[in-house]
UniProtKB/TrEMBL annotation:
InterPro entries: GCP, GCP_C, GCP_C_sf, GCP_N
Keywords: Cytoplasm, Cytoskeleton, Microtubule
Organism per entry: Paraglomus occultum
Full protein name: Spindle pole body component
Family stated for the protein in its record: Belongs to the TUBGCP family.
GO molecular function, one term: gamma-tubulin binding
Keyword Cytoplasm: yes
Ranges where the Gamma tubulin complex component C-terminal domain occurs: 438-781
Cellular localization per UniProt: Cytoplasm, Cytoskeleton, Microtubule organizing center
Superkingdom in the source lineage: Eukaryota
């Protein structure tokens, strides 16, 4: 339908609503144009030729006669002349002009401002004939409604009230125009027809009274909502500052309840509540269809271009200007995807509530594409029509009033939302999966952070061991990065064919793994049973607060990965931090395993350990040491196998399966986040109690490995003593006591870990039972008596 046809249909609708067509036949039969000036003496003759009144009117040039006429009491006139005078007053009053016998009611005690807003109340001369007075008082509310509506239109047409209010005022102005045309036609009938009476006047304006009453009720509700919102805002000091701190730019002070979606909500609610009256329903359909056009236009720009063109903060989607995509690579707590664009609470029109999520996501998807520098083309109408023909939007689960759909162009916006959402989703999915190679990126990250096919990393550790033994503050990151690049570029390395190997970077953490994890799960590391610390302070300024031992290079070693937008939506700084935690966890397990393997090598190759001591007590002490070393090594190896094969690899297969059948971008984010969270949880990195027990166990293993050299020297001294050399005497009893402490400590904590795993397998994840079976095979530790 063309613009002219639309305007014509609205005009005809407005005329039907106001009731102007009631005069169609009578206007055709009239010979005098409504706009043709008619002298009052003609009107008097047509009433019946009252010579006295005609004389007063024709001699209006005389000031004395005018004064006499103005001081004339209407009740002293004949009834027919009273009717003539009151009709003439009504025609003026209905346009907001005070009459001679109908005056403004100044006894109501209202101020001029309030009277202007709520509508002027008029009173009829008390001397008027009672029957005429009753009819006039029935008509007078029209004058009150008109003045109140006119004041509303004048006020809410200001720019600060927004496009929706402007459109609503435009629609009401069309109705007021038809109302004035009605008054013109009434005046025409009054001046040309001798049979026109006050009763006929009432008959013609009665339908309009109902329409004007509904419009007046609407504008009063909008004004009341405005007043309530202003009072609420005044009671919340600092509200504006809070909005600005959150990144929302408050462009004007008009409350959301009386602009944009708030106005459409009022219209749709009133339409549904008053739909039992056909005329009222028709009125609100007209007002809603007109008022919603700017809003639907803003929605169209959002879902088809990813842009918010909303200078007056009317639209249901709001933008945080201070949330930028660059923060994704830097800030652990950055919530670009969740907080850059959000829905304004309690301002979404009811007919858009079922579609609000799709509207939000469609624009967010396109906004990501636009920020990548990719041009977004306007969808061709042909494409939209074809898409609608092929796949109609499913409305079976959408609770939208059919009358609202009728007002909104027959519900065409439903199909437009569905088409825009699918188009934006598919475009961004293709960008991530094909252009940005998301799956290949994730496989690359898995290779480096999960030590998958990690022959290159073993080579790197061999080359960098001399550097990694130093304190972390003395390690040269530049040297480590050069060694890593050298290893990755080695043609014999598996990583040589990885196109993203240049994005892997070496970094040193300033806080230990266990301390960092305990901070993340809100446990103070210096007092593990006391208060919590926020995750923000943990990773933004993560320096060790305690006066503990300084980290070595191997303990502080971590990897980083360079990710650009839009991949940083999926592989954000938060996700990379989780990858780093898992990497450091695996690396520490490998480190402890290497220490224990070095002990095994020494025990196997060293002459002092292989030689028969010839003393049963020393032999028993050595055997106990071998057994403890083996139990520790088995524990670390079984735990490493559990982490790599039963957690990381299994969850990776699940992630691959989910990514192969995904249909939305949000599913990509959800699956990837679930993958990392599940890996952290099943690796015991999110439970403070399990983490503390595991830290005690690994610390015991490291202490035992570092104490091996002392054990070796003690063994040599003990053998010298058995040979009769008492120099540097060492007590076997003291060495057995030291070894006994290691045995008791390890046994106590591994039994405690198994008990905790059994408990948390019932409350957190059943996956812990797999680890229990591996650690306590054949209930070996369960049957061991506790020595504490």
């Amino acid at each position: 339908m063309s613009g002219k046809q639309n305007l014509g249909s609205f005009k005809s609708l407005a005329r039907g609503i106001i009731g102007v067509s009631a005069f169609a036949q009578e206007s055709k039969s009239s010979k005098v144009s409504p706009t043709e000036p008619v002298k009052r003496k003609h009107r008097v003759k047509s009433i019946g030729g009252r010579e006295g009144l005609e004389c007063n009117i024709t001699q209006a040039s005389s000031s004395k006669s005018e004064r006499a006429f103005s001081e004339l009491i209407i009740g002293s006139l004949p009834t027919q002349l009273q009717e003539y005078a009151i009709i003439e007053d009504l025609l003026f009053v209905m346009m907001g002009i005070e009459g001679k016998y109908i005056e403004v009611n100044k006894a109501d005690g209202l101020t001029e401002e309030i009277r202007y807003i709520e509508g002027i109340d008029y009173v009829v001369d008390s001397t008027l004939d009672p029957s005429l007075k009753d009819l006039a008082e029935r008509i007078l509310p029209l004058a009150t409604y008109y003045t109140a509506i006119e004041a509303f239109v004048e006020t809410y047409s200001e720019m600060k009230y927004g496009f929706v209010n402007h459109a609503l005022c435009g629609a009401i102005r069309e109705l007021l125009k038809e109302y004035l045309i009605l008054i013109t036609q009434l005046e025409h009938q009054f001046r040309t027809s001798s049979s026109f009476t006050l009763q006929k006047f009432w008959f013609y304006v009665h339908p309009t009274l109902h329409t004007m009453s509904n419009i007046h009720s609407l504008v009063m509700e909008i004004r009341d909502n405005y007043q309530d919102s202003v009072e609420d805002d005044d009671s919340h000091n600092g509200y504006d500052e809070l909005l600005n701190c959150d990144g929302f730019s408050k462009k004007n002070s008009i409350p959301q309840q009386v602009k944009g979606g708030g106005i459409l909500s009022i219209l749709s609610f009133r339409m549904s509540q008053l739909s039992g009256d056909p005329d009222t329903k028709k009125l609100y359909i007209y007002l809603l269809s007109r008022a919603s056009k700017p809003y639907i236009s803003m929605m169209h720009t959002w879902i088809h271009h990813g842009e918010i063109r909303d200078p007056y903060d009317e639209f249901m989607i709001q933008e945080r200007k201070n949330v930028k995509k660059e923060h994704l690579k830097e800030d652990f707590n950055d919530t670009y995807w969740e907080m850059r664009y959000t829905i304004r609470e309690n301002t979404v029109p009811p007919f858009l509530v079922p579609f609000q999520k799709k509207i939000l996501l469609a624009g967010k998807y396109l906004n990501v594409i636009r920020e990548c520098g990719i041009a977004i083309e306007e969808p061709r109408k042909k494409t939209i029509d074809e898409s609608v023909a092929e796949s109609k939007a499913d409305r079976t689960d959408v609770n939208v009033n059919s009358d609202v759909l009728l007002a909104m162009d027959g519900g065409r916006f439903v199909e437009n939302i569905e088409i825009a959402y699918k188009r934006a989703n598919r475009t961004l999915l293709d960008l991530l999966l094909k252009d940005q190679q998301l799956l290949a990126r994730l496989r690359s990250i898995k290779r480096y952070f999960f030590l998958d096919q990690s022959d290159f990393f073993t080579h790197f550790l061999d080359l960098a061991w001399s550097e990694l033994k130093k304190p972390s503050t003395q390690v040269s990151i530049t040297k480590l990065q050069s060694l890593l690049d050298l290893v990755l570029r080695n043609p014999s390395s598996v990583a040589y064919t990885d196109p993203f190997k240049e994005d892997v970077k070496v970094e040193m953490s300033s806080v230990g793994l266990v301390e960092q994890l305990l901070r993340i799960i809100n446990v103070e590391p210096t007092a593990m049973t006391r208060g919590a610390r926020s995750i923000t302070g943990t990773l933004v300024g993560g320096h060790s607060t305690g006066g503990g031992k300084q980290l070595t290079g191997i303990e502080a070693l971590s990897l980083d990965y360079v990710v650009t937008f839009p991949l940083s939506l999926v592989i954000s700084r938060k996700a990379l931090t989780k990858y780093q935690l898992l990497f450091r966890h695996l690396l520490y397990l490998k480190y402890v395993e290497q220490l224990l393997c070095n002990i095994w090598t020494e025990h196997f190759k060293s002459f002092h350990w292989r030689e028969e001591s010839g003393h049963p007590s020393i032999t028993s002490w050595k055997n106990r040491m071998y057994a403890l070393r083996q139990r520790m090594l088995v524990f670390i190896q079984q735990f490493s196998y559990y982490v790599t094969n039963e957690v990381l690899e299994r969850q990776w297969r699940i992630l691959q399966s989910n990514l192969a059948k995904l249909s939305t971008v949000d599913q990509v984010l959800e699956y990837h986040t679930d993958f990392l969270d599940t890996c952290l949880k099943e690796c015991m990195l999110t439970n403070a109690k399990l983490l503390r027990i595991f830290a005690k166990l690994t610390h015991t293993c490291v202490l035992f490995a570092n104490y091996t050299d002392k054990f070796r020297k003690s063994l040599m001294a003990l053998k010298s003593q058995t040979d009769g050399n008492n120099s540097g005497a060492v007590s076997l009893e003291q060495q057995e006591k030291t070894l006994h402490k290691f045995e008791d400590n390890f046994l106590y904590h591994i039994k405690l870990l198994i008990e905790a795993l059994n408990f948390y397998s019932a409350t957190e994840t059943v996956q812990f039972l797999c680890l229990v079976v591996r650690l306590d095979y054949n209930l070996y530790y369960y049957n061991q008596p506790s020595k504490r």
